[in-house]
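Here is one chain, start to finish.
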Amino acid sequence: MSSSIIAQATANRNKFVYRIFLPVILLLLAIVHDGCKPRELVRPTLQMDIEPAFWVRVLLLDDVTDCTFKTGAAFSLTGQGSDRPTQPTRERFDTFNVPTKIEISAGKITIASQSFTGDEVIIWPGAPHIFSLNDDDYRGKLKLIVNPDGNSFDAINLVPLEPYLAGVVGAEMPDYWEPEALKAQAIAARTYCLYIKNRFGSKRTWDLNKTQASQVYLGLAGESAQIWDAVTKTYGQVLTCKHPGGTEDIFPTYYSSACGGHTENSEHIFGDSFEPLAGVQCPYCKDVAKLSVFFWPMTQFDKATVTTRLLQKYPKLKQLGEITDIVATERSDYGQFSRLTKVKLVGSTGKTDYLRAEDLRLTIDPTGRKLKSAICRIAKWDDKWAFLAGRGWGHGVGMCQCGAEGMARQGETARQILSYYYPASKIATVY
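Its structure:
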């Protein structure tokens, strides 16, 4: 048989094998590829039947005219329908995974072509009680409140305490940090939440903001197995201390990213005084925080920008005119460094006024990402203000998060970490 015939026969056989087995191979590859994909297992939302004292109202959207809602299960709406304005109505919708536009017009909230005349509408997603708002996923319920002008509304997440914490701890700490540091964070965040809720919640329609103005809350985006483990293992645990009169109660368990070497007395920053918040030396955060955080580089801001932001935030400062000088008048001295706690503002009109240094910092840089702390020196730099020799990140009160991780790496437990950063505090259980 000639070599050409053999070659042709071989080619025909290969084509036959290719046609017969290619679909099988592709199917197997698809199965293997699909099997390698991480399965999205939705954890049930806990505490949906817990008493009202342990539900948290988180402000998600403020003063908006529209948003997009979606849920993977049937949901119900509770509000005052336009056809029966004097009676609360409960409507059920069986639409799954379909974006639903929520908007307001003439004081009426409209959802899926259903208008509501009342000031409030509550959306109840079915199990596992998860919804999406503008593509961000949250647990619990969604409450819409019409603002007094009737032209906008607020969107508030009604969520039980433990699921709320699962969305906070992962936002405030990397989930790959030591389990004991995560547990310490869970207890601190739980305590802080309840304290702020109890102190301010009765005066407004929400308890906490989702941003760093309260504590960062990401909903499901902050969750992971490690985070849920920390929340579950500290279930219901809070910190308490003695208050005036000898009563034992929770206190504001402030915390910040990296204290720079010493935590600050809360009275200097927030004006409140609690024994566990007097400040302690911290030799731990320097080994955990990034170098650019522990020693942050010089940052500058235009003098005109500084004046504008200060006068917008504090109208009383308008009497100063242009800010011509910023003078440190009070500081906490820790040997190798000091934290500014109070500054004097000098104006072009010749008048002066005072601000807490932390208020100055967050007014000039609301993000806190450039002007990272009040551990710095302030200098005039042509037409700018320069902030030099910066150290640490955050207000420095309470637990140093990088310090907590440093202690955990050395084998300290969550209880020991909390006892160190909040001396004279105790762990108690609220449920």
